[in-house]
Design goal:
This protein is α+β, with helices and mostly antiparallel strands. Among the domains are: about 100 residues; about 150 residues, Adenine-n6-DNA-methyltransferase TaqI, Chain A, domain 2 (Alpha-Beta Complex), CATH 3.90.220.20. The chain has 11 helices and 14 strands. Strands 2-11-7-9 form a 4-stranded antiparallel beta sheet. A 3-stranded mixed beta sheet has the order 6-3-10, with no helix packed on it.
């Protein structure tokens, strides 16, 4: 049995300290005054949390809209435009595709046919007619234009054991801006599957299936679990060079906080699905490479400040609880209010209580005898 019971007879045996009646009133008044101050302080702290969350949302929105670095752009007008950066990324991506195709023909011992390079599908331009206007030097593109988007492998009983057991991450391991390694599981990945689903440092993992307010929750994989893979409860975004994962992560956090991921997610009864295809087609605000670094610097500074304030709020709430407990302890010890030698001693008060109880008991006994005679 794990339940504990408080016996009435044991309670009656407990010894308590009784202060003079006047001091009792002073103690009660002091406790009520302190508890009222504590209540008001706790209410004020409860209002800080939502305000900090609103600040976080505003900060991230300002980051991916370019408002955060407006002064920086004014001081650095000659940076490479994002359109040139995007062209370099597309050129490098096409080069990788051609190398991969040539390798396939070579593996088969064949020469590439005439016009084989025309099979490459150039990315379509983004329709930005309904998108907000970006700062000068920025451009809209799609997620799939600046990184590789992939859904993880589905879990199955046939993978629960095998010769190639590997750790894998799932939605329970990916929290907001952090990877949790408290419950990492394993399953069998063939060498081919391991190569396809293996995580690299800098990959961004996003919750694919989650509650509506958490769908798309992102975190950067930084090698917390070496040689690990991921399941289809997550979408992986691997940025193309020269992009790093830092700026896209800020954008994804902003999309999470401002509801953009919710807008594209498909909804069931209680689960929202991001969808790798829908995510890949999302519009992505691309700033110049140098400005990306400045956005990350300013955004991270602000986010760290918010996190520190949240820590202080939590500590303050804990301190209020301890203060309430300390107030009661001091009251029981007679340390909360000053004593007055002119107060009637508690022993006199106790004697009066005993006498009153004796009189009350005698009256009850007398009343019982009268009722007996009437019967």
């Amino acid at each position: 049995m794990t339940l504990r019971h408080l016996n009435c007879r044991d309670v009656l045996k407990v010894s308590i300290r009784i202060p003079p009646l006047a001091e009792q009133r002073r103690i009660v008044g002091k406790i009520e005054a302190l508890q009222e101050r504590s209540r008001k302080a706790r209410e004020a702290l409860n209002e800080v949390g939502p305000l900090l969350e609103q600040f976080r949302q505003s900060l991230l929105a300002a980051a991916f809209r370019g408002d955060l670095t407006a002064d920086w752009r004014a001081q650095n007008p000659h940076t490479e435009p994002a359109t040139e950066l995007l062209n370099r990324i597309r050129t490098e991506r096409r080069k990788r595709w051609e190398q991969a195709e040539l390798a396939k023909y070579e593996a088969k011992g064949k020469q590439p046919p005439k016009g084989w390079q025309e099979k490459y599908q150039e990315p379509e331009p983004v329709d930005d007619s309904e998108l907000e206007e970006l700062p000068e030097g920025w451009c809209w593109c799609q997620m799939k234009d600046v990184g590789d988007v992939q859904l993880g492998r589905q879990r199955s009983p046939k993978y629960h054991s095998g010769p190639n057991m590997r750790p894998y991450l799932r939605v329970m391991n990916v929290f907001e801006d952090r990877i949790d390694t408290g419950d990492v599981m394993e399953m069998d990945f063939s060498p081919e599957d391991f190569e396809r689903f293996r995580l690299e440092v800098g990959d961004i993992l996003l919750n694919e299936g989650q509650s509506r307010e958490l769908v798309g929750r992102p975190a950067i994989y930084r090698g917390e679990v070496p040689d690990s893979c991921f399941t289809n409860t997550l979408v992986r975004f691997r940025p193309d060079s020269p992009l790093t994962s830092d700026y896209p992560q800020i954008v994804f956090l902003g999309f999470l906080k401002t509801g953009r991921f919710q807008q594209i997610a498909s909804l069931t009864v209680n689960i929202a699905h991001l969808g790798a295809g829908r995510f890949a087609d999302m519009a992505f605000p691309l700033p110049p490479l140098e400005e990306q670094a400045e956005i990350v610097r300013q955004a991270r500074t602000g986010l760290n400040q918010i996190k520190e304030l949240e820590r202080l709020v939590t500590e303050s709430k804990s301190s209020l609880t301890q203060l309430d407990q300390s107030t009661l302890v001091k009251a029981f010890r007679g340390e909360l209010v000053p004593q007055d030698p002119n107060d009637e001693p508690a022993s006199v008060l106790l004697n009066r209580i005993r006498e009153a109880r004796e009189v009350s008991g005698s009256r009850r006994q007398g009343s019982g005898k009268k009722k007996g005679k009437r019967q």
